[in-house]
Inverse folding.
């Protein structure tokens, strides 16, 4: 049972580290996945266990984590909430005493940002995008996509179209979803070659967590 005073924590791991131990049922899940998915699943769950073991001061394999591919990771009641995100060369793990969502992307990622904006962004976002110069459009789409992913991961019940409905008021650092009548605190962290987004229901008491780097 968690009895620490921390409200949230954030860990960053590059993907060139040695694998960590995972539970037998996680090994069984991993063995049923494709090579790349298996490697990603085992690596992220192993480091999630390692990170939480440092927070809770218990053995990594004693962390009551239940996490299946394509679903939100779940901790036993009383142990808080977990969110995991990865890009091609790093993973980020966020823990909180309340629900939290996190997303990571390389800041230099190349992608079809104009098509993504046209297909998935709201009318307000498209209008703002159209008034930006070419040098700022890619970063705008990348940052707003990170916001949408982080906020979507925060949701307890996830409906696919909800991902695209999240919007971001940068002046107040709040993201909101009209269909859900929901507002969240959203923070964007630029760390080295990566951009990390965090969505949480903490507001006045929220300050950016220190990134634990390994």
């Amino acid at each position: 049972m968690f009895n620490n005073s921390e409200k949230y924590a954030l860990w960053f791991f590059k993907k060139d580290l040695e694998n960590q131990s995972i539970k037998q049922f996680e090994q069984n899940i991993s063995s049923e996945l494709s090579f790349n998915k298996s490697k990603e699943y085992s690596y992220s769950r192993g480091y999630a266990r390692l990170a939480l073991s440092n927070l809770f001061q218990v053995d990594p394999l004693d962390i009551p984590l239940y996490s299946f591919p394509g679903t939100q990771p779940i901790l036993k009641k009383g142990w808080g909430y977990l969110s995991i995100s990865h890009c091609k060369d790093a993973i980020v793990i966020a823990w909180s005493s309340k629900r939290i969502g996190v997303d990571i992307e390389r800041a230099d990622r190349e992608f079809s940002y104009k098509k993504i904006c046209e297909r998935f962004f709201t009318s307000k976002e498209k209008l703002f995008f159209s008034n930006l110069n070419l040098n700022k459009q890619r970063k705008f789409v990348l940052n707003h996509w990170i916001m949408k992913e982080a906020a979507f991961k925060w949701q307890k019940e996830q409906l696919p179209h909800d991902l695209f409905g999240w919007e971001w008021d940068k002046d107040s650092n709040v993201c909101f979803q009209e269909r859900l009548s929901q507002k969240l605190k959203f923070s964007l962290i630029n760390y080295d070659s990566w951009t990390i987004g965090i969505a949480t229901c903490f507001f006045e008491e929220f300050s950016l967590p220190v990134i634990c780097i390994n």
Summary: The mean pLDDT is 91.
